[in-house]
Write a structure and sequence with these properties.
- There is one protein chain.
- The chain has a single domain, classed as 3-Layer(aba) Sandwich (Rossmann fold).
- It is 38% helix and 20% strand.
- It has 12 helices and 17 strands.
- The strands form 4 sheets. It has a 9-stranded mixed beta sheet with strand order 3-4-5-2-1-6-7-9-14. It has a 4-stranded mixed beta sheet with strand order 8-17-12-15. Strands 10-13 form a two-stranded parallel sheet.
- Helix 2 runs parallel beside helix 6 and helix 6 packs parallel to helix 7.
- The longest helix is centred in the middle third of the chain and has 21 residues.
- Bound molecules: nicotinamide-adenine-dinucleotide.
- The site of nicotinamide-adenine-dinucleotide has 27 residues, from helix 1, strand 2, helix 2 and strand 10.
């Protein structure tokens, strides 16, 4: 029997992964989330039934979804005192987790990354416990989500932004400076992933998603927030900074697709970009959504808001060459889906 572990499985990426696993496999899925940001499964599963069982909820008619609400570090600590605590406490008959997706992290948008960097720095503590646990538990395969924030910010300036390639981070050379404590934790995580593979034989792959978005993303992120304001026909339309700063937007369904391809093909801890390869400014994004809404507002720049690096986008050629993969969902189609979801809330 396969049981997959999804930490942070009630967050944006996690719940999309859980839904995909439940839909495309017959496997069991064990989710750990403290709900500090994430939403309880009753809010995002179409058919929700649950029963409580010794500190966990068993969810769904076929009882394949186990939900443990709490800090992932406490979950990992419990393994230290008894490596078989899951099997014994919850009557689960399995040897080890199959796929482990580690999405539990303090992420937030730009406000949190710039405004509370030492809270975000707690990711170091979550990740270091996680990597240590991997070396003892030895799951079959592991996904570590790094981030495009691990890339040197010097390559993302207004004057000199380039399409970021995987090789722009090289642990054998100078690494450059990543984006705040968030980027540092992700860079450290990538390094630990390589050690987990080389020293402990763990099958692990890292991803560097760029700006992932989707219909059910939190409103603290720009895409759903801009979509909602466009649906409400905001005018003048506020934008953080000049709006000329740009990002590489990629739909969550594409992110999940590539994760499975990478898990099947990479196990040495190396990292791959997940993006579209295209740079879209926030002004362009506003145009896309306001054109869906059928109006042309005046733009009001908010120059006191944090904006992060000027331009962050990727080169997807390595992923295309190695795995023949490019995102399927165009910016227009993906943003249309977000807009339709926002309209229902407006
Ligand atoms: N969304 C993106 O575009 C993107 C881009 C790059 C990297 N990532 C990475 O993917 C992962 C998931 O991101 P997301 O966008 O889903 O974030 P999210 O904030 O929506 O999800 C994180 C989840 O972890 C939970 N959590 C936080 N601390 C926890 C703890 N100590 N114990 C248990 N649960 C805890 C939160 O409640 C939340 O549900 C993160 O590691 C993030 O850095 C995401």
């Amino acid at each position: 029997m396969n049981i997959h572990l999804v930490s942070g499985g009630c967050g944006f990426v996690g719940r999309n992964m859980v839904k995909r696993l439940l839909k495309t496999t017959n496997d069991k899925v064990f989710v750990v989330d403290d709900l500090s940001i994430g939403r309880h499964p009753s809010e995002w599963l179409d058919e929700f039934t649950s029963k409580n069982f010794k500190d966990i909820e068993i969810i769904g008619k076929d009882e394949r979804f186990y939900f443990w609400k709490g800090d992932f570090r406490d979950f990992l600590f419990a393994f230290r005192s008894n490596p078989r605590f899951i099997q014994e406490k919850y009557d689960l008959n399995f040897d080890r987790f199959s796929d482990v997706f580690h999405f539990a992290a303090i992420v937030g948008g730009r406000l949190k990354i710039d405004g509370d960097p030492l809270m975000v720095g707690l990711d170091l503590s979550i990740d270091s416990e996680f990597f240590y646990w991997l070396t003892r538990h030895k799951p079959k395969r592991v996904l570590y989500p790094s981030s495009s924030a691990a890339y040197p910010t010097s390559l993302q300036t207004e004057a000199g932004a380039i399409q970021l390639r995987e090789g722009d981070i090289d642990f054998k050379k100078n690494l450059g400076t990543p984006d705040m404590t968030y980027g540092w934790t992700k860079l450290t995580g990538e390094f630990l992933a390589q050690i987990a593979a080389s020293h402990y034989g763990i099958h692990i792959v890292c991803i560097r998603p760029f700006s992932g978005y989707g219909e059910d993303q939190e409103l603290s992120y720009p895409v759903p927030a801009i979509a909602l304001r466009a649906a409400k026909k905001e005018n003048p339309f506020e934008v953080w900074g000049s709006g000329k700063q740009g990002r590489d937007f990629v739909h969550i369904d594409d992110i999940i697709d590539l994760i499975f391809i990478l898990l099947d093909n990479v196990g040495d801890g190396s990292a791959y970009n997940i993006g579209s390869g295209k740079l879209t400014s926030f002004l362009d994004l506003i145009k896309v959504f306001t054109s869906f809404a059928g109006y042309n507002p005046t733009i009001k720049p908010l120059l006191d808001k944090p904006v992060g690096v000027h331009s962050r986008y990727c080169d997807m050629s390595l992923v295309k060459e190695k795995f023949g993969w490019m995102p399927k969902i165009s910016l227009e189609e993906g943003m249309r889906r977000v807009y339709e979801a926002a309209k229902k809330k407006s």
